[in-house]
Design goal:
heterodimer; A: mainly alpha; MetI-like fold; 13 helices; B: 2 domains
Chain lengths: 288, 353
């Protein structure tokens, strides 16, 4: 018995250790490096120098940079709210649909992933631009007298985020709703609750973990998706992601970029901690 | 049974990993002769050039691309010496790469076609005597105006700060190019580090901000061609394409002077195919080859002998065949020390927030 267990352990180690090794090499080491250099400075030739400093973190409190953080938070927050408002009904319909239409809805949700996200965002330019399809139709119908300025605004950035991230809201919610015990709904209605009450008192609380998982999977990427802000916002409504990208690529200030990233990672970990503390399962976040 | 399967899987994984480890040196070892690894900007060197080189010399070319000078520097520093033979850095980046010891002096006696390059492009300040670099293509950042929408005769950069042009400009998403142009509109250098001058630039940037509809470095011409923007600030080849597309566009080189760039062919230190690389550089400088590049990408060609071969459509396009006077008046961007670059970064952060 004991020998069998030992044997099992060896084969388990043999199987898991390469994975752990690569995880350590490809995920842990770069993160440790980022954390390390966030406390470094640069010399005048932009090389990273080992001189422990908190300057990079102090710089985050510059009003302009704090402004970008606030903009990011509000864009991500709005995108999350809209994703719930659109995603929840979609998930509910999908969870209750017949197998064929359910498959169809899954396909509709997943199919866009076959095309690169950047290309799909460019399509919005063609649709929403001042000389785009939407304005053309509205002008022809006489509903507006001059083109609506939709593209290259903060609203367009939110739209792009919702569009890109909606599937990540729908999937966890529909998973939870599918597992929902129908008996509970029947019991609620047998006890005299109207559908609205049943939804508010039974369905919604029971699907909350799915919503929370969706919130995490929409809110966190929305803080960092710099290409959405570049393409939809025209680069003048920047997010934390843009700021980080610029430090690494144009401003040669890796330590400052690292400090900005560390703050973002910390915010992410806090959110995930809140999620698990409220009873969420980490496995559900990996569902996609 | 389950255990055996696990063991077999583990062995398979280990074997496939070691196979990977073996494969890499084998592949690069074969590159010692008869190959050339070129690392160049996207959309900058046409395939026809590489095909012709292979046809004539039998040397196989491998091409990788980058989209910013900073990308180039980061990738060269991060990879082993010998991965790339040829790189095409811009002016200030040549200086940085020389300073970091990343470039190899050129085999000048072999590069006989250097005589084809116009005198004004030789012996640049960033590489005196062309020890490490020879000019490839050149250009300026300038304005393009949609004359159907903009009635005013625009001649200077300061005119586009007018609130009349609210939400109508597409500009390069490039801090040094935009901040530099605003500094120049005030009569300062685009490399100024003077705090009072930068403070005034900051004030003007705040005026420019509401006029910017979008920042785009990849294809700013698209916003002009689609009518999304009526004023554009972009590289001259993009402007040249606008002018080719429609008569409604007009190129304007602001009277305060333009942001200039000169991209250069260089050989990396430790290049495995250094002889091929020098031969390739000489090949590119040949008038007929340089013409092939200009046919595809209408930047300003510093190769005087090639310009003679180019059609009227190049010579008559003011945004391709840029007046030499513009180059005399313009300014190259300089590599700033980290503490100064941080100030530019702060200006840009305020501009884009």
């Amino acid at each position: 018995m004991k020998r069998a267990k030992k044997k099992e352990l060896i084969s388990l180690l043999a199987m898991v250790s390469p994975v752990s090794f690569w995880m350590a090499l490809l995920i842990a080491l770069p993160l440790i490096y980022i954390l390390g250099i966030s406390f470094c400075g640069t010399d005048e030739a932009h090389n990273i120098v080992l001189s422990p400093t908190l300057r990079n973190y102090a710089r985050i409190f510059d009003p302009a940079i704090a402004g970008i953080y606030l903009n990011s938070l509000s864009v991500a927050g709005l995108a999350t709210i809209f994703a719930i408002l659109i995603g929840y009904p979609f998930a509910a319909i999908m969870a209750n649909a017949k197998p064929f239409s359910k498959t169809l809805m899954y396909v509709a949700l997943m199919l866009p992933f076959w095309t690169n996200c950047v290309i799909r965002l460019y399509a919005w330019r063609t649709i929403l631009g001042s000389n785009g399809t939407l304005n053309f139709i509205l002008l022809k119908l006489g509903l507006i007298s001059k083109p609506l300025e939709i593209m290259f605004t903060r609203g367009a950035v939110v739209l792009g985020m919702v569009y890109t991230l909606l599937p990540f809201m729908v999937m966890p919610i529909s998973t939870v709703l599918e597992k929902l015990d129908r008996g509970l709904l029947e019991a609620s209605s047998d006890l005299g609750a109207r559908p609205a009450t049943t939804f508010l008192r039974v369905t919604l609380p029971l699907s909350a973990p799915g919503v929370f998982a969706g919130v995490i999977m929409v809110f966190i990427p929305a803080l960092g998706f710099f290409f959405v802000s570049d393409l939809m916002g025209g680069g003048t409504s920047q997010l934390i992601g843009n700021l980080v990208e610029r430090q690494f690529k144009e401003s040669f200030n890796w330590p400052f970029g690292a400090a900005l990233s560390v703050l973002l990672i910390a915010a992410t970990l806090i959110l995930v901690r809140l999620y698990t503390a409220s009873g969420g399962q980490l496995d559900d976040l990996g569902a996609m | 049974m389950k255990n055996k399967l696990g063991l077999a899987l583990a062995i398979f994984i280990v074997l496939s990993l070691s196979a990977c480890a073996n494969a890499t040196p084998a592949a690069s070892a074969s590159g010692l002769s008869g190959e050339l690894n070129v690392f160049v900007w996207t959309e900058y060197m046409p395939d026809t050039v590489f095909q012709k080189f292979t046809e004539e010399t039998g040397v196989k070319t491998n091409v990788s691309t980058y989209s910013t000078n900073e990308d180039l520097l980061a990738k060269v520093k991060a990879s082993n010496a010998g991965i790339y033979d040829i790189v095409v850095p811009s002016d200030y980046m040549v200086k940085m790469m020389i300073a970091e010891g990343l470039l190899e002096p050129l085999d000048k006696p072999k590069i006989t076609n250097l005589q084809n390059i116009g005198q004004g492009y030789l012996n640049p300040s960033f590489d005196p005597g062309n020890v490490y670099s020879v000019p490839y293509m050149s250009g300026v950042a300038a304005l393009v105006i949609d004359t159907e929408k903009v009635a005013e005769d625009i001649t200077s950069f300061s005119q586009i700060l007018d609130p009349a042009y609210a939400n109508s400009i597409v500009a390069l998403d490039d801090p040094r190019a935009v901040i530099g142009a605003v500094s120049k509109s005030l009569g300062y250098s685009l490399n100024t580090v003077d705090p009072t001058e930068l403070a005034q630039t900051d004030v003007k940037l705040a005026l420019l901000k509401p006029n910017i509809k979008l920042l785009d470095s990849d294809s700013p011409k698209s916003a002009m061609l689609s009518g999304e923007a009526s004023i554009g600030y972009m590289w001259n080849a993009e402007i040249a394409i606008c002018l080719e597309e429609s008569d409604r566009f007009k190129a304007v080189f602001p009277e305060e002077g333009c942001y200039l760039f000169l991209d250069n062919l260089c050989v990396l230190k430790g290049a495995k195919n250094s002889a091929n690389a020098n031969e390739f550089i000489n090949f590119i400088l040949r008038p007929d080859v340089s013409k092939l590049v200009s046919d595809e990408y209408p930047y300003t060609n510093p190769n005087a002998a090639a310009v003679e071969l180019l059609p009227e459509s190049y010579k008559d396009n003011p945004a391709s065949n840029v007046d030499p006077a513009i180059f005399t008046k313009g300014e190259y961007v300089a590599d700033l020390p980290a503490s100064e670059l941080e100030r530019y970064d702060d200006l840009w952060t305020r501009f884009v927030k």
